[in-house]
Amino acid sequence: MQKGISTAAGLVLGFALDRVFADPRRWHPVAGFGSAAAALERKTYADDRRAGAVHEAVAVGSVVAVGALAVRGGVLATALATWAVLGGRSLARAGHAMADRLDAGDIDGARELLPSLCGRDPAVLEAGGLARAALESIAENTSDAAVAPLLWGAVAGVPGLLGYRAVNTLDAMIGYRNERYLRFGWAAARVDDAANLVPARVTGLLTAVLAPVVGGSAGAALRAWRRDAGTHPSPNAGVVEAAMAGALGVRLGGLTQYRHGVETRPTLGDGPAPGAADLRRAVVMSEAVQLGALVSAVAVAVLRR
């Protein structure tokens, strides 16, 4: 029980650090891991699933080992690891900044900001497409950048925090279904799907429960989730995006152009396409869900034996 209380205290302190300081602008540990993973890829790359699995095991295993050593640091180590892997505050700031630029009619500025939220090609998007892309990214990253790290930290402490962020970062780097990574990135994509299976559904439930915060209803969020999530190509993004669409009363999905290609995404939710005002509501929803996830993670950590 004492270990669980220590973990819970570290999660709360790290969450508070993220609220106050957001992501460090320089020397970010996640950026450092990305550079190391890219260097490793130059040694391990082959157009083969087995090579990708080795790459995943070495990169993630190394980070988990570091986390296991850092456990000795107690509350402080957990707090610093939590701060390093959370991205909730930066996500909210980027969402508000995007809404501000859209409200001001600054399409060029909004396009410039979009890469900080997602990997879509901003050059082909107008105001409506930018609002939808940003809102879908906020929904997905509420789970990936906040809920999932907190839950993994509650269950597995510092190794869980760092290991999850390594898994998620590798998926962002090599999990694309393009020619280079179709086979090499297969393991990274599948491991990320597994790591987010429970957190995405916790995010969906919290979104439904907290929908009244933004004037929505739990029933609408749950209906959109049940009806639409399974049509999405991702087993996890579909859940959180559909729940968010239902909670906000907007329609997501449609033609989606990434730098690596074009995908036609299924329709999620009912109602009009989102605008800047809906994007602001999504940020409020995201921050409420993040707080709910912290409460849930603290409960799991304290009860864990």
From TrEMBL:
Pathway stated in the Swiss-Prot or TrEMBL entry: Cofactor biosynthesis; adenosylcobalamin biosynthesis
Subcellular localization, as worded in the UniProt entry: Cell membrane
Main localization category: membrane
Listed InterPro entries: Cobalamin_biosynth_CobD/CbiB
Membrane topology: Multi-pass membrane protein
Keyword set, alphabetical order: Cell membrane, Cobalamin biosynthesis, Membrane, Transmembrane, Transmembrane helix
A Pfam family assignment: CobD_Cbib
Record has Metal-binding as a keyword: no
Family statement: Belongs to the CobD/CbiB family.
Function: Converts cobyric acid to cobinamide by the addition of aminopropanol on the F carboxylic group.
NCBIfam families reported for this sequence: PRK01209.1-4
Record-given protein name: Cobalamin biosynthesis protein CobD
Phylogenetic classification of the source organism: Bacteria, Bacillati, Actinomycetota, Actinomycetes, Mycobacteriales
Name of the gene: cobD
